[in-house]
Every structure is written in C-alpha cells, then in structure tokens.
Amino acid sequence: MSARQPVVDYGSYLQLKKLFSAQRPPDYAAVAAGTDPASGPVRELAHHDELLFIVVHQVYELWFSLVIHELTRVRDLLGRCGPEGGERVSEDDIPRSVNGLRRVNEIMQILMAQWRVMETMNPANFLEFRNLITPASGFQSVQFRQLEMLAGLSGEARMDFEGRPYATDLTDWERERLASVRGKMTLRAALFDWLSRTPIQQVFPAFAERFVAAFTSYCHEQSALQQTNPNLGAEQKNAAVAAAEAQAESLRAWLLGGPPERNHAHQAFLFIGSYRHLPLLRWPAALLDTLIEFEQNFRMFRFRHARMVERMIGSRIGTGGSPGIAYLDSTASKYKIFGDLLEARNFTLATSHVPPLPDESLLNFRFA
Ligand code: HEM
Fold first, then answer.
1. Contact between 239 and 232 (Cβ < 8 Å)
2. Structure confidence at residue 1 as a pLDDT band (50, 70, 90)
3. pLDDT tens for residues 27-83?
4. Is the CB of residue 167 less than 8 Å from the CB of residue 178?
5. From residue 83, how far is each of 25, 91, 163, 207, 259 by CA, in Å?
6. 3-state secondary structure 262-289
7. How far is the CA of 189 from the centre of ligand 1 (A)?
8. Is the CB of 319 within 6 Å of ligand 1?
C-alpha cells in the first residue's frame, strides 16, 4: 500500500510542535563547551512566572518579524526610484505603502499594550530567576537592531554602554541577519529619495520662497501679538521679536540652506502637508502621516518599556550591564529616525496663511 500524501492540517501548517518545544530554556550547565545552546538539553522552569517571561519575549520577537517584513516592503516600494531601483514609484504603490505602515502602527499599539502582561509579574518573582538569565538582555535582540537599521537609525546616533557597541555579543547567525540590512537602503533614505522627486517645479516653481515669505510674515504677526500682551515685560517682548526672526531664519535654512536634494525633500514635505486637501496629494499626505506616527510609536515603545523596567527593577543595572532605565530613557528621548520631519512642525502654517497655488486644477483628478 502506498503511503498517503499528507494533507494540510492546522498544527503542521503553523509548525506548532516546533513552536511549543521552544518554551523551556537551554540547560546551560549541561551544554557541551563550543556547541550551540539552542540545540542542547533544556531545563525546567525555575519559577512559575518564568513561562510568562519567555512567552512575552517570544511574542514580541514574532511581531518584530512581521514589522520587519512589512517595513522591508514599504522600503522596496518607495525605494524603487532610488539608486537601487531606477523606476518611478507607481501611483498604486503609495496606498500600498500606507496600508503596510498602518498595519505596522497597529502592531506597535499591541506591542505597547503587551507591557501590561509583563507587569502582572510580581517584581520579587522576577528576582527568583533573574540571576539565571544574566548576562542575557533584550539589548542582544537582533531583530530589534534590524528594525532600527532598516528604519534608518544612523550608526552615529547610537549610544554604547560601557564602551560596548550593540553588536558585540551577537552570535554568528545573528551577525548574518544584521549583514542582510547593513549597507542597504533604509526606509528613511527611500522616503527622502521619493520626496526629493516630488514635481513641485511643475506645479509651483516659487513654492519655497513664497512659503518662507508667508511664514516670515506669520512670525512677525505673532511677535506683534506678544507686544500687546500685558503679562510680558520689555525684556520678554524683545525676546519675542528675536525669536520670530530666528524662527523665520531657521525655516529658510531648512528649505534652502542644505544640499539641493535635501532642500527639495524638505520642500516636498511642507508642500504635501500644505496642500493635502487636494486629491492628488491625499495619499502622499497619508504616507507622511503614517511615517510620523511610526516614529512616535517607536519612541513610545521605548518609553513604555523603560517604565515597565522601572516598575520591575527600579534603577538597578540591567542584566546586560547597562545603567538600566537611565540608558533606556536616553534612547527614548534621543533616538529619532524622522526627527527633521518632526522639526518641520515648527513651520506649519494655518491653511488660510499658506500661499495659494498658481493653478489648483493641476492637483485635482483628471480623467482622460
Ligand atoms: C522583566 C522584564 C524586562 C526587564 C526588567 C527588562 C530590562 C531591560 C534593561 C535593563 C535593558 C537595558 C540593557 C541591559 O542592561 O540589559 C533592556 C533592553 C532591552 N529590552 Fe528589556 N526588559 C524586560 C523585558 C523585555 C521584553 C519583553 C522585551 C521584548 C522584546 C525587551 C526588549 C528589550 C530591547 C529591544 C532592549 C534594547 C533597547 C535598546 O538598546 O535601545 N525587554 N531591557
């Protein structure tokens, strides 16, 4: 009798046998020197709550893998017109990118909510097995580093702790995974590449100069308003005048003072935001919104992790050897991927103050 061809079933399709066999930690004392602990003997849980600790980490890692999968596609869609692609980004690819980013942002909400599950652990119970996991740490999460690199966190922005860069403790397969992102186009670079090709010249050649003029007069209006503020003294009123000049100057530098491609990308960012109500700019504006939201979510994720850690271990040093929450809080405040785009919120103008387009119909839908 010939063997029956297996049919798809729930457990094998999802590889659940493999997944469930991964919830006991390696028995490091019993693993032979020089071999991979992940394929050696396992030990029993040291405490009831150790399973919570393992499962929560694994679930985060699974979501990270989906976030990387989605962001890679968005990077590829937008980066098509970049040095690696050479093609134009098609109209359909913008909504496709927005949908990918919306999915990522929803996942990030779940990631933030999940800290609450970890927080059901009594901190004293964590101490029952904390020594057993030292010196391992989320600091060694290769997917988290992949995610940061793919998004575009620059190497210079990173902080080491104790002079140890983040890649020091990685195993060979982890290094290989990182190599797959290193040197590749980042999401940030793909976005800037796409922005720098926005055809502003064809629609509003004098946009940058006109926007600077409108913003400068808005700043002067604001400083004039402060001169009538009865709560301000002469010194504060003078400071308001100086601040208005400085703001107008910083917009000029942001839009016109850098290399041409960056200037163009910044101009496109303000252009799309300013005329976002016009049909042809709605999807590009949604794309920028979802990216800003992603940045905010990423930073909130770091901040929320730090609060969970504070609640769990106070200000003790981390198992990985960092100063703990002091390190985590500084990454939450300093690590920005689209920081310069957030900076542009300083330059937002009320729609009534935005310079009118020479011909709005160019950005309406046209039917052949
Ligand atoms: C009781 C639970 C946890 C505690 C007390 C904790 C504590 C810490 C500490 C102190 C650090 C700084 C590095 C170090 O010195 O070890 C860190 C880093 C990190 N942890 Fe956690 N963590 C916990 C759970 C988690 C979970 C569930 C994840 C999800 C994957 C996670 C992901 C990370 C990541 C990605 C970093 C690196 C952050 C960076 O370098 O910016 N942690 N954790």
1. no
2. low
3. 999 999 989 998 899 999 999 999 999 999 999 999 999 999 999 999 999 987 555
4. yes
5. 44, 19, 35, 27, 17
6. HHHHHHHHHHHHHCCCCHHHHHHHHHHH
7. 28
8. yes
Q: Return the domain boundaries, the chain.
A: 17-198+283-334, 200-273+350-363
- Cα of 64 to ligand 1 centre, how many Å? 14
> Hey, which of 125, 328, 329 would you mutate to test ligand 1's pocket, going by the most ligand atoms within 8 Å of its Cβ?
328
Model pLDDT for residues 157-205, shown as the tens digit of each residue: 777 666 666 666 778 888 888 888 888 899 999 999 999 988 898 899 9
Predicted local distance difference test score (pLDDT) of residue 80: 73
The CATH number of the structural domain formed by 17-198+283-334 is 1.20.58.480
Query: Three-class SS of residue 205?
Result: coil
What is residue 174's predicted lDDT score, i.e. its pLDDT?
87
Q: Which residue has the tokens 């093609």?
A: 87
Q: Is 320 in the pocket of ligand 1 (CB under 6 A)?
A: yes
CA–centroid distance, 15 to ligand 1, in Å, is: 28
Distance CA 10, CA 116 (A): 30
Distance, CA 141 to ligand 1 centroid (Å)? 9
Atom 8 of ligand 1, residue of closest alpha carbon: 318
∠ CA 255-260-263, nearest 5°, is: 20
Average pLDDT (11-38) is 94
What is the whole-number distance in angstroms between the Cα of residue 90 and the centre of ligand 1?
40
Could you tell me the sign of the dihedral formed by the alpha carbons of 17, 22, 24, 29, in that order?
Answer: positive
Q: Which of 49, 51, 27 is nearest to 40 (CA)?
A: 27
CA of 138 to the centre of ligand 1 (A): 4
**What is d(CA 11, CA 171) in angstroms, rounded to the nearest whole number?**
30
Structure confidence at residue 156 (pLDDT): 74
**Cβ of residue 323 lying under 6 Å from some atom of ligand 1:** no
